Here is the input.
Amino acid sequence: MPADNISTILIVSAHFYPVIGGTPTHTHYLCTALSELGKDVHLITAGGDAPITDEGAEHDAHLRYTLHRIPTNGKYKQDISFLWRIRKELPTYIAQLHPDIVNVSTGNFVPLVLRFAAVDDVPIVYTVHNVPPEEHPFRHSFGTDTVTSVIRRVYFSGIGILARLTVRFGKYCSLICVSENTKRKLILMGANSKKIHVVGNGISVPSNVYENDRAFGTGTVNILTVAGVIEHKGQLDMVYAMKNIASEIPSAKYYIVGPIRSVGYRDRIISAAKELGIEGSVIITGEVTSEELEKYYHSCDIYVQPSYQEGFCIAILDAMIRGKPVIGTDVGEIAKFVADGRGILLKQPSVQDISSAVLRYVRDPGFRVSSSLMSKNFVEKHYSWKKIGADTLNVYAAAKNR
Here is the structure.
């Protein structure tokens, strides 16, 4: 359906820069793609009362869309504060900007609070990247591991209830989800299947895309996972696999790049590496800048995504577009990405399976090169932001015409 009936777009995102990676980065590139398609795009996000750093000001100055930051009590990523503020502020922005569509890009429970806001004059599209509580953070520790585990279960049960309430009673006319897997979960939670549209995440092609030119003959292999450090990302399995890998390649290194979303899980990774005698081979970086992240992608030889849960998995596509050989588990859309020789899929991975997959790439340079080239071409064809932006506009147009 043509999107000529869409001129002004208002995007809502609870998280945005300086948060790097995942859904905040998706929001930035979506806004940019829609702007490049000739639309007037406005982004409302948190942090209006946070100090503006030189780096932040530099980032904001080069945006192709208009950014509006609303106060969130000085805590840039405080979701509860954002929910309260967006309920109060969104009607004012709608009255001022007269958008043709509002898209809640990130903010798990925003559509639920919008039930109590005066936003009836504009269609609302709700984007679901993954079904909570799968991607919801839990960063706290309460005395013993047992107490923490109990509180964690109660916390996630509450998040799950709020997620179901949002899907069933939230204020929206259409749902965008990033995979068929997420669509199935939304239907189980009570979403109307007729309202759901599957539009994948886009991938920004870096200016310095290169073939995987690092030489394995030096005896050094850098293995990378880009993901928040949390149980369902599975980095601990890769640490155990490193014991087998290091027996053949003693200088192999495993880099875990991403924010610490579970302190307890990080500590388990560190303890396991020490017990295995490979603590010098496992590096946890924490959250990094976009420039630093690019360096980690550039210097890696093999990318591994050992996740137990994913809604989509942007990170593995980021590795593929950079010409890296990839290994992934059968969650989210990973099976689709690495099919037909574009990588190695681990159906029900064991530590042995992971280490064997890594060593296969090391031992078979022909497969490594062909896999990397096919995966890079696949991502360029199917997940460019120009295509994803156009697909998203079609969803907007359909919502506008309802």
Q: What stands out?
A: The first helix runs from residue 22 to 36. The first strand starts at residue 8 and ends at 13.
